[in-house]
Structure formats: C-alpha cells, structure tokens
Design goal:
The protein has 128 residues and is mainly alpha-helical. The chain contains six helices and three strands, in the order H-E-H-H-E-E-H-H-H. It folds into two domains: 62 residues, Orthogonal Bundle (Arc Repressor Mutant, subunit A); 35 residues. Strands 1-3-2 form a three-stranded antiparallel beta sheet. It is elongated and about 55 Å long.
C-alpha cells in the first residue's frame, strides 16, 4: 500500500513551491526565497518548514553544520490531492459539474475548448 500523501496547508505550499523550483536548499536560502515573495517573518517560515518535515513532505540531510531540505512530496502528488479535495468538497466528487461551472461562469477561450476536446478524445481512446 503506498504511503498516504501528507495534507499541507496553503502557507506550507508556498514553502514547497520554493523547494519544487530548486532542491536541496539550506533553511536560510528557503527563508530568503519565501521572503522575496511575501512579508513573512523568518520564524514563521522556519515553523512551516518544521511542520513540513514532521509531516514527511520534506526531508533534511545534514551537510556539515547545517541541513539541506528537499521535497519528498512531489508537485504532482500535491496537485492530485488538492484537485481531488476540491472535487469532493465542492462538486460531490464529480467532474462534470466542475466543467459545467467553468463553462457557465468563466471565460473559456477557443484554446481551452480545444484542449478539453483533446483530453476527452484521449480518455475515450483509452477506454476502448
């Protein structure tokens, strides 16, 4: 049985974004990168990093007197978990109401519609 994907908060996902872009990184580099994109205090960022480590979303390897952090949770795993959670919470686990919502309330361009048709064709081909 595969390990469950750890649930991460929106704030924790901002730290993960830094690690998904480049890893491994020392905590001071992670703090600096997050602070370039937010007004968060260093202690807040280090707390989030500690939570991610505790959840198993990141790993820490000793490098001399410091630790280098790297993501264990992949962006794809996180996206899959988040999209499933959204579908379940907001659309009763069904994809068609989500698509109907977007078609009614969001502007779908010709490119978007073409990509959706391409995806549907690939799904139909797979089911045959």
């Amino acid at each position: 049985m595969p390990n469950p994907v750890p649930a991460i908060s929106e704030a924790e996902s901002r730290v993960m974004e830094v690690l998904w872009r480049k890893a491994p990184q020392a905590s001071e580099d992670i703090v600096a990168a997050v602070q370039r994109e937010s007004d968060w205090h260093e202690k807040t960022i280090r707390t989030l990093l500690g939570r991610l480590l505790g959840k198993g979303a990141v790993s820490a390897d000793k490098d001399g007197r410091r630790y280098l952090y790297a993501p264990v949770l992949t962006r794809e795993q996180w996206q899959s978990q988040e999209s499933r959670s959204l579908l379940d919470r907001v659309f009763g686990g069904k994809l068609s109401p989500l698509l109907a919502h977007f078609s009614e309330h969001e502007k779908l361009g010709a490119k978007d519609v073409a990509e959706l048709r391409k995806l549907l064709a690939a799904i139909e081909k797979k089911e045959r």
